Amino acid sequence: MPGMPCWRMQHLETELFICADTLLEETAETAVKTLRKELDAYIAANPLFLTSLEPLEPEEGAPETVRAMCAAGKAAGVGPMAAVAGAFSAHAGRALLRHSRQVIVENGGDIFIKTDEPKTVAVFAGESRLSMKVGIRIDSREMPVSVCTSSGTVGPSLSFGKADAAAVVSPDACLADACATRLGNEVKTPADIERALEMIMTIPGVTGAVAIAGDVCGAAGQIFLETLG
Predict the structure, then answer these.
(1) Distance CA 188, CA 198 (A)
(2) Starting from the edge strand earliest in sequence, which strands make up the sheet with 110-114, in order?
């Protein structure tokens, strides 16, 4: 990223690509390890949190991130772990923002971003001809914000649909991630895109969404798309 040092870090299943005003590797690592330990402890006491594909209510006294993941899952109609990648990107990003004016954290297609200038997030859509040809333009006045992407054809994430890319924009990273999963679940053919986008935009907190299936792309909400490449 021009003008910002960037680095990669990995802890167990979490792999982040991070940019900030300065190298803050220890800060990022501490944030990720702290959240992982917190989630592992909660899952040990509540194993269903890890496996449920349906919304769950958090236990009394549950950590803030657990409550946020459960709330996002409930809003989107999916299990709480559908929000886990977004939770890690935002947790690391907000920790870095205590020391850096600008931060970009990418976690397997889920991005938390706060920069001084507008940025365009390219949408990766696997084998689709539209992959990396469609960008979501993010105004700096809307930041910090999260852009989270799910896919039924790319990567290891569980999806019940066939979308090459289902991207959701929201100030709430957990909500963006969970809703990206739901959007992806709903798109089984290009003909499903319009209905799926209409549905996802009824969820409070969703700013906009993009879905790609094959050579068909649809978008909804208060977002601006750019043609790339």
Answers:
(1) 15
(2) 6-11, 14-20, 103-107, 110-114, 145-150, 165-170, 208-213, 216-221
Q: Are 162 and 187 in contact (CB under 8 A)?
A: yes
* Beta strand spans in the chain (E): 6-11, 14-20, 103-107, 110-114, 119-122, 134-138, 145-150, 165-170, 208-213, 216-221, 224-227
Distances (CA, A) of 71 to 8, 67, 86, 153, 174: 29, 6, 13, 27, 8
Question: Which pLDDT band holds residue 229 (cuts at 50, 70, 90)?
Answer: confident
> Does residue 158 have a pLDDT over 70?
no
Find out whether the peptide bond into 144 is cis, omega within 30 degrees of 0.
Answer: yes
Residue 227 pLDDT level (bands cut at 50, 70, 90): very high
Q: Give the per-residue pLDDT at 93.
A: 98
Helix axes 64-76, 173-186, angle to 10 degrees: 30
pLDDT in tens, 17-39: 999 999 999 999 999 999 999 99
Q: Was domain 6-227 assigned CATH 3.40.50.1970?
A: no
Which among 210, 191, 190 has a CA at the least distance from the CA of 200? 210
Q: Are 146 and 86 contacting, i.e. CB atoms less than 8 angstroms apart? A: yes
Dig out the tokens for 80 from the structure. Answer: 């709480």
Cβ atoms of residues 201 and 114 within 8 Å: no
pLDDT of 159 over the 90 cut: no
